[in-house]
Each structure stands twice: as C-alpha cells, then as structure tokens.
Amino acid sequence: MSDKIYRVNMATMGFSVEDVPAEWAGLGGRGLTSIIVAEEVDPECHPLGPNNKLVFAPGLLSGTSAANSGRNSCGAKSPLTGGIKESNVGGTSAGIMAKLGVKALIIEGLPKDDSTFYHLHVSKEKVEFFAVPELVGKNNYEVLDYMLEKYSKKVAVMSIGTPGEMRMNLANISVKDPGGKLRSHGRGGLGAVMGSKKIKCITVDAESYKETTIADPEKFKEASKIFTKALQENPISGQGLPAFGTNVLVNILNEAGGLPTRNFRSGSWEHAENICGETMAENIKARGGKTTHGCHAGCVIQCSQVYNGPEGEYITSGFEYETIWAYGANMGIEDLDLIARIDGLMDDLGVDAIETGVVFGLAVDAGILAYGDGKRAYELIANDIAKGTPLGRILGGGTHVLGKLYGLVRVPTVKGQSIPAYDPRAVKGQGVTYATSTMGADHTAGYAVATNILNSGGHVDPLKKEGQIELARNLQIATAAVDSTGMCIFVAFPALDDPACLPALVDMINARFGINLTGDDVTNLGIKILKAEHAFNLKAGLTSADDRLPEFMKYEVLPPHNVVWDFTGAELDSFWDF
Amino acid sequence: MSDKIYRVNMATMGFSVEDVPAEWAGLGGRGLTSIIVAEEVDPECHPLGPNNKLVFAPGLLSGTSAANSGRNSCGAKSPLTGGIKESNVGGTSAGIMAKLGVKALIIEGLPKDDSTFYHLHVSKEKVEFFAVPELVGKNNYEVLDYMLEKYSKKVAVMSIGTPGEMRMNLANISVKDPGGKLRSHGRGGLGAVMGSKKIKCITVDAESYKETTIADPEKFKEASKIFTKALQENPISGQGLPAFGTNVLVNILNEAGGLPTRNFRSGSWEHAENICGETMAENIKARGGKTTHGCHAGCVIQCSQVYNGPEGEYITSGFEYETIWAYGANMGIEDLDLIARIDGLMDDLGVDAIETGVVFGLAVDAGILAYGDGKRAYELIANDIAKGTPLGRILGGGTHVLGKLYGLVRVPTVKGQSIPAYDPRAVKGQGVTYATSTMGADHTAGYAVATNILNSGGHVDPLKKEGQIELARNLQIATAAVDSTGMCIFVAFPALDDPACLPALVDMINARFGINLTGDDVTNLGIKILKAEHAFNLKAGLTSADDRLPEFMKYEVLPPHNVVWDFTGAELDSFWDF
C-alpha cells in the first residue's frame, strides 16, 4: 500500500484519502508539516478559527527499524507565537502512522456542533468520528485507559487534557509511548489548536498495517548498523544521556554559569546539587526505577527513565532537564520528588513543561507565589490550570501574556514563547537560535549548547559573539532536515563528531525510498524548510523586530560571568543571509 | 518667555529646561509627541521598561482664545498595541502648560527606588519631585482633592488610579477639567506607562504663567471669529452635539445598522431607545443636570454634560456615546443610570471606557458574566479591576489578551486595541480607519462615520467599498494635522462642509506664530506625522498583517444588512500609497 494523505474536515465530519502530490513525496516530519501549513494555511488566519489546519506527519524513516526514527511531527499556525509551529514527539504514533501508510493527517475546519468533543479513529483508508461527551473534562490518562479498552494496547493515541479543551496557550497534544505513559507535542499551544477543532482524542489503528517497505533492504541494514554504532559510541548519546538522562545538564550548565536561576537573574544556583542528574540517578537506583528507557521503539540512546518515589511508587517518566531546571533553579524548588510529581501531573493534563515552568518563575515576580513553593505550584496546576479558574487562565496563557497582565518587563520570551534552560547571555550561540528560530524561543531548533558547552562539533566560546550566528544557522538548517527524518534530535551529537554518521543517515533514506540523495540535498532540504517557515511568519506579521531577545537581557548583567546580551539587530538579521 | 522643552529623568530625579530645537518649532500636540517618540524612543524597547518615554505636548493653539483649542496630547510607545500612541484630552492641562511655556514635557527613565510612587510639580523652569506614599492605592478623585488642597483650584492635574499603578493595559491618564471633574488620555495604556515610571500625579502650576503671546492679534481675532461662527453654524457641531452630546449617535447608528450589538453580532439593538441621546437629554432636563458643558475653556460645542440620578444627585459628566454603546448595545445593559454610574467609576479609577466596555462584551463570551448584568460589571470594575484580583488582571489586560486567555476567535480588536462603536462591516470607511490607523482600532483617527453616515463632507455609501480607502486616508491625514493644533476633533464637521473654516484655522496658527502656512502645509504636516508614526510601528515589528480587521468579520455576516468585511489585504495596503 502506497503512502496517502488523510484529510479530515471537521465542519462536514468527512474525510478523503488522497495520493501524495509529487512535490511532497520527498518530505516527511517537519518538512511535510511545515510545507503543508505554508501552502494551505492563510498566514493571517486566527490560529483557533476555522482556517487553521492541524497536520501530523511521521518522519521519512519512521516505521522502519532505523535506530531513533520514531518521531512524529505536528504542525499548525501557533496560537502562542502567531507564527508557524512544528513540534515532534516520541511515542508510538509515528511508527504506527507510517506503517499504516499515513504520510500526513491534515485536519481542517471547525465542527458545526461544538457542544461536545470528538474522537477520531484512523484506520486503513478510513476515518471514523465519535462524539465523546463522556470524555469531556477528563485528562490524558483517563482518555488513554478508555481508548486502550476500546481498541488494543497497541493503538496509537493522541489526546488533550482539560487545558487543551480550554484552548490554553500552554496546552500540549499528548501521545502514548511504548510503556503506556505519555510523551508530548510540546510548545506553541498545539493542544489548543486541537481543542479549537473540538477533538479530544485521535487514535490510529495498529492492527491493519503492514511492515514498511524498504526499497533496498541490504543497503538499509548496512547503513543502519553504521548509524547505530555512531549513536552508541558517541560519549554524549552513548554514555552521558543513558546514565543521567537529559538531566546530566544541570551540573554542566551550573558550572558554565548558564543555568537560568530565579527567573533569569543568575546563571548558577546554589542548590543545583539537589536536583542534578547524578542525584536523580541515585534516587532511581535506590528506589527501583529505571535509569534508561526509550520514548519510542528502536531508541538506542534511552535518555528517558522511570522515576519512583521514596516508597518505590511510580511518579513519572520522561523526566527532562528542562522541567527540572524550570521548577528547580528557575522557581527555586529544591525537592526533586516534588518536581517529579509536578512532571507527572503535567503529563496527565497535557501542559508544556517549559512554558508552565517558566510561567511560574515569572509568577513569583507577579506576586502569585513564592520561590521554592512547589506545593503551591502543584496546586495551581491541579486546581487552577486544570479547571480554568481566572488564575488558571492567566497561568495557562503562558509567560508572555502573564507579563502583559501584570505589567512586567523581565519577561523571558521570544515571539511570545518562553526561553528554555540555557541563559542566552552566557550561551550566546543558543541565544542566536532563540532569537532567530521560526518557532519562538526553542532550544531544539538549533542546539548550540552542543558546540558552546559540550564541545560537540568543535568549540565556539559561549561568552563571545564570534562564530555564533554561523553556528546557529548551520545547526538550525541541519535540525530542520533531521526533524524531517523522524530522527531524535540527539543524533546531532554523533552527526557533529563522527564523519560516518550523517552519510549513513542519508544512505538509510536512499535505501528506504530507492533514491539517491546526497549530503547537499539534505542541507538544501533544511534550507527549504527554514525558508518556507520564515516566509510564513513574515506573512503572518512577524518581523525582524521579533527576532530579538527580551530587552532586559541587553542591560541586566548575568552573574557569575557578568555578561549581557550584546548582539545588535543587524547582526541577528544577518542570520537570514543564506 | 519663549517656549521650552521640559525634560524629566526619573532615574536621577533630575530635569532640564531646554530650548526648542528648530525642527520642532512648528509642531504641537500629536505632531510633537509623535515626532519626539519617533526620534527618541527605540521602537524595539519594552513599553514599560526604562527606554520608553512619556511625552505631553499642548496643541499649537492651546493657551490662546481660539475656540476649542484646549486639547493636550500624550504620546509614548503603547503597551497595548506595541506601536506608537498619541491620545489627546480636554481639561485644563493644555492651556496651563501652553501659557507656562511648556512646549513639551518629556519623561524618561525609571526611578531607582521603585518602592513608592511620586508626584511631579512643574512650574516656571522648574520640576519638583515628591514621594507620595500616602497616595499609593488611591484613585483619581482623591488624588485630585489632595492636589487642589496643596496648590490651588486652578492647578493642572494629571493622575493615575490603581489600574495605572498596576500597569494595566486599559489604564488612562486622567486630567482635571474646568468643572473639577475628570477627562482622560484614553486608549493604548498610557496610564500604565505613567505607572511604570512610578508617577502617581503631575501638577502644572497655574499661577506663574502669563498669557500666550499672539504675533498678530488683529488677524487672530478676525480668523477666530470666522472659525467660531463655522463651528456654531454647522448642524452637527452647532446643534446635534450640544443637544444630545455624542450620544446623539445611538439612534443614528442603530438606524444605519452599524451599532455593534452583543459583541459585534448585530448592527442594531432592540433596546436602543433606552440609552439613546434623546432619552439621556430628557433625564438630564428632568433631574437638573446640564445638557451642555465644555470639557475645556473656550469650547463652543459643549458636547459634554452633567448627568444626575433620579434624586438629582450627581453621577457623571462627559458621558459619551462610546461608553453608552459599549455597556448598552454591546453588553446589553438597558439601564442608562447604571451605565452612568459605571462611567463615573471608570473616571475615578482611570480606565479606558472603550477598552473596558468592549472587554465586558467579550467577557460574556468567556462566561465571566451575562448580557445585561450591569451590576456585575460595576462590581468587577470596583472590586476586581481596582484591586487587581486575578480576574481583574484579566479584564485589565484588555480585550485582545482576554481573547488569548480564553481561546476566543471573535475578538474585536486591531493591533490589540478594541474596536469602538461603529461596526466596520456596515460602516466600511470607518473599518478602513480601524485597520490602517497607526494607533490600533480608533474611531477618532479618521472619522469616516462623518461621510459614511452623517453626510458631512459629501456622502460615501457605508456599505460599499468604493471610495473608502481614499476617504479614510484623507481624514487620517487631516486628523493628524488637526490633532497638532490643540483643536477638538469635532472641528472636522465644519471643516468638511464650510469652506471658510479650515482657512480660518490656518490663519489663527499664522497669526499666533507670525508665520505663513498654507492649507497645503497643513496637509503636509498631517502626512509627515502619519508617516513618522507608521515608520515607528514598522520598526517596532508591526506589519501590513497588523493593518487588518479581525478575521471573523470576513466570514460572519452582520445583520440587518447581512454584510461582511470584504476588503482584500492588497486594498488595505494601498492605504499607505501616498
């Protein structure tokens, strides 16, 4: 069965299964979602109105046995940034969609009867629509249980919690992972777009698919072996990440003076020890959790984990550095277990860990709670955000809107999206990515931390301006391409340092489709994607003035290096000279 | 004494009194505030941060005996729109500043000690600074009493209430009028900018000034006579406005099908009779109020009024159509007395009547209150907005942000500012002004209602697109110039219909300064101002995508004419072809 475009119209509750247009054939993941959004969505439309579209697309290698190829992309016009958004996720949806032959799922329109929510079930050449009033007001784990009961343990499930129903800017789309836990299409409020279309849940049938066809199985196998070896032998993807998860970064960033602390007032935190990856790994080992865990089938990095409480009870999995930083250093919670409970709660509700965490850092400035009061943060999520009280609506709007409502100046956002866990004044290459990314502040869009701090792909001094624009540009181009393959972003580490890695990735794509891409083709794909996204944003009303970090970072000195953000507008604008 | 620029630095609590640069000499009012903001404020700065400036400038004819010349302009980068803002006001401040020789008052920086608020007293070549902890948390009438006690009944007073202290987007700067009541620098959150600078109140000494010098008193007197006659003989400025105030418009717009009703769902309201100007005038007459009242000395139109309650008790003055429409047709309150009490409350707090009223229309869609529940609206202003509860913060952020927080699509704003009392689908010329104005949706920026509905300056069919771009352009250019003279916008009616009016206005300016402007010079001044404002906005990050009405107006039909907003982007963009 050849791949098809599944197109759903919520206004008519109808669908069509279409041949893949020739110009979309070589695209997958982010490349496909961004090109579809750029071609089909009016950039001036309201993100929650009838003219936005929600697009899912597995990566080019998803559904194959290639290591770490299980990422699914979701795209739309973002209600948070007002620009284009792509967010990719692990879990089981990419593999199942790819094997079913769903090249992309495009969801259009708003239902005429918006008095309830709907469940969409995608199976072979078919989409079914069910009103699910019984699931309205429920959160993700309850929806997941319901669907696993209705279908099978293998069905792919994408759902929203109450924040998505309420169309909050920090709402995610949550995706079932192989262990029955949840991963997230995070950032940019994609859950709000799904909520605006009154879709509570999408399931994808895992029974009717067949294995993905490989044009040249021998070549694929060989390239796959080289690629897997590169991942396993790299010290970061092969050792650091498996041992401590992404939380390996707390100590590293703290030492580098780039760990944003107390809403970006310092680059180091005196209590980092309490929340660092080493402490986390000790807890896991002592309490019978798992230090390694894959977010999708075929992952050889296993940076995820299962984190249990003191009594050995399950608390959360996929416990990431960004979350631990946001509630730890940035909001002052010293109790890692409490942060873990917040993490699990956020999974259940489907709210973005970075946006929610950073909003709490700013909420301290707004007088809503005190530094370190994790109990109150937990309650605000469980009672206010989940139920949409006025305070919950405020927090649910994200950091930028909170700043607007409380007249605050020290608001760490770019294009309305919260800045993640690396202070751009002390990790300047990352700052260039935050400023220029088409996605708003986003560490994954071009992870310059790799070369600024981790010495992957050489070294560019994090405190100096020299070389940062070029570094961020090259990484963003490469990332846009990698995000199209279905590969996890952490393949970047071997790709930057092992000359065999990228060619093997290209060989796998060639073997899968029987084509002959070169490394340059892949670079050009990344360029094409970035330019399409940028053009969409310009038409949507974003300008170079949006490619800026918050003004306070230009005049407020960050200890311990006592640095400011010193790129000029013209320097940042030169990012787009390619 | 020649005019001077008074420049205040809140960071140093210092000031300078500077000669007027030659290139600013011919400017006043909006022309001066906008040129100063465009020249001195970084368009990318945070509106509430240290690099925004708050500028006051009386009009070119303020301080003279010219009829209706008592408008004072205030400018800054707006925290509501993110673009430039000018807002002019009646009251006594323009005349007093002009007579004191204050060409402009420029306030820069943020105080180092921001633990309290300050009072600035401007007198002859001097600015004094007083910490006023005793006024923190007080509203405008209490501040006014305090200052009238400290100085004299004649002192000019500009102040903010608690919403300004809290830097809410709907905060105004309030100004004492000749009757001891309040007028407002409304729209765009200028009160929040004043609050960010920790200024509770500015007073301007009314004792040390001398009369404004007139270069050619005879010529001035003669031109003034012609100008006054034109104002008095025009049927709108001479009869309609004095008889019914601006509220004469309720019945007119209702009949025209352009009275936005229930958050812009219809163009006519079945209860318009209860709130119209005729009903208002009857109440005033029966209860011993005043149907005519000038907002500033020298006003010959007298469209303001004093509105008393059933027992003859004072409720409010300056009770405008926009307010009555917003709480009436748009939010469903049928009780004019209750709307009047809300109006008086809004004066005391210093919140924008349009932004606050429109936010309540949308708040119904958000489920915060019900149509017609004026009692609840009153309480939400008095208890929540005034005290900054979470719900008060939400409402205080304005309509655009409320829409963001509740995921609403039918949000009537342009550039984040609420659309006023004329539905653009049924008054298309006004819609062009809303879309293209540098100020965000603003009826005063180019009042096409005049020619679309009131047949002033000819007639352009309100329901057709033909001629509207040109109409809105010509009106916006003329308005930018008029806003520089210190003249009230209602001089537009005789100016459009009486060929003697505009030349007399130009003659007064020439006689005042001993110069020889022509009508073309005045048009060119308007063009210069608009272009400077537009250039600032583009640098601040606004684009043609911001020159658009809300998308829902393109697909949602407005009864009774069953019209949509049908201008293309390219048509709107052609507005700037001059």
Short description:
Two copies of one chain form a homodimer. Chain A has 578 residues and is α+β, with helices and mostly antiparallel strands.
How is this structure best described in words?
Two copies of one chain form a homodimer. Chain A is α+β, with helices and mostly antiparallel strands and 578 residues long. Chain A has a domain at 4-204: Aldehyde ferredoxin oxidoreductase, N-terminal domain (Aldehyde Ferredoxin Oxidoreductase,  A, domain 1). Helix content of chain A is 40%, strand content 14%. Chain A is built from 23 helices and 17 strands. The first copy, chain A, has helices at 29-40, 93-100, 140-150, 162-165, 190-196, 217-233, 235-244, 249-256, 277-287, 321-327, 336-349, 353-365, 374-385, 390-396, 399-405, 428-436, 449-452, 468-485, 492-497, 501-513, 519-540, 552-555, 569-573, and strands at 4-9, 14-19, 54-58, 72-77, 84-89, 102-108, 118-123, 126-131, 156-159, 173-176, 182-185, 199-204, 290-293, 304-308, 314-317, 413-414, 417-418. Chain A has a six-stranded mixed beta sheet. In chain A, strands 8-7-12-9-10-11 form a six-stranded mixed beta sheet. In chain A, a hairpin with a 6-residue loop joins strand 4 and strand 5. In chain A, helix 10 (321-327) runs parallel beside helix 12, helix 11 (336-349) runs parallel beside helix 13 and helix 16 packs across helix 18. Chain A is globular and about 60 Å long. Chain A starts with a strand and ends in a 5-residue tail after the last helix. In chain A, 64% of the residues are buried. The model of chain A has no long low-confidence stretch (mean pLDDT 96). At the A-B interface, helix 5, helix 14, helix 15 and helix 21 of A face helix 5, helix 15, helix 16 and helix 22 of B.
